[in-house]
Model the fold of this input.
Amino acid sequence: MFKISSNPIDTKLLRELTLADQAGGFVCFEGWVRDHHEGKAVLALEYEAWPELGEKEGARIIAEAKANFDVVEVAAVHRVGKLEIGDMAVCIAVSAAHRAAAFDACRYLIDEIKRRVPIWKKEYYQDGSIDWVGCKGCAKH
Amino acid sequence: MAVYGLLLAGGRSTRMGEDKSEMVFRDGETQAQRGLRLLGEVCDQAYLSLRAGQPHDGQLDVVEDAYGEVGPLGAIASAFSKHPDAAWLVMACDLPHVDADVLEYLLEHRDPEANATCFSSRFDGKVEPLCTIYEPSIAMRVLDSINREQVCPRRVLSQVRVKTMDLPRSEALDNANTRGDAAEAIGRLQNQATEKSLTVRYFAQLREQVGEEAEEVTTSAITPAGLYEELRGRHGFKLKSSSMMLAVNGDFQEWTYQLQAGDEVVFIPPVAGG
Done:
């Protein structure tokens, strides 16, 4: 499951979605809003998404993770809208029979989500400036 | 005064992913062959500008760039150090729409009293520095700019006296930097351009710049790359197509895709989830 939502992320629900008797390990990555970007103090930020293509691409990335790593369940949510420092922007939950696959899959998921899912970030800085932030590897899709 | 041609073929073609001077757009000639032939037809002599040590066919007249990674200004300075008293018609190798007519027009309207004679861009009205006649009087200024590490040829031209003209054909200097640009150029050279209406949806900074979430567009662009160039001129977009992904009709698509009437096109600004 990959969802884009404007509501606060329910990490407990994501964990529950990955519970399974054959799972022996669980890895979760949370992405938080940080107070700085490339040396500039950040006050808040705003995520914008194209939800239809975003959820379609997110589902593809999860299918790839399930095909390439020996995992049991994957659930991920990306939040959109205006967020404050410390808010959770993304959460990825992975269960697997053994820990190595859970760690590897989680890393793959966050890297690919950042690179491929049409979500944009607008940062509001302390000095009054505002900027749309771009990921360096993004056009290599 | 002699006018020599200089074809710039020392770039690294990183956005295209293959050497632009070796690409073939028309008549079975590579862009290097075609450019040298055209410059040879209208100038006293044509030279190929290459990076130092770049391999080439030994038959050609070559000006090696003595300034390393400076770019076109280094190539121009190297040409002036070879023939300081000649004017140089400098042309990029990624201009598939240039024909003898464009170069003849430039030479006919040349003003040797100015420091340069050039065309203005159809997209933003600024000077097009890479199909321009540089007079010997600009050579010192070129060197000075390199020494100051100001290596933008447009900037140099903005600081001197230039004669600027509108293009004789609007598409004449549309360049091909990416595979999408190349597909657009080949389609247009084969007269495949037809007018069609489609929808463009905007997100993030593009939406803010346009002030709308979507617009209906009538265009004769063949590919999304051609459409983006058109809209970039109209709306003043700063992003280059090479920094973006593309979607057509709700899913990712290649920039070389052939647009159809009724398509919904989305240019995807650099993404930044996570």
User: Anything to note?
Assistant: The interface with chain A takes residues 203-205, 242-245, 247, 250-252, 266, 268-274 of chain B (CB under 8 Å).
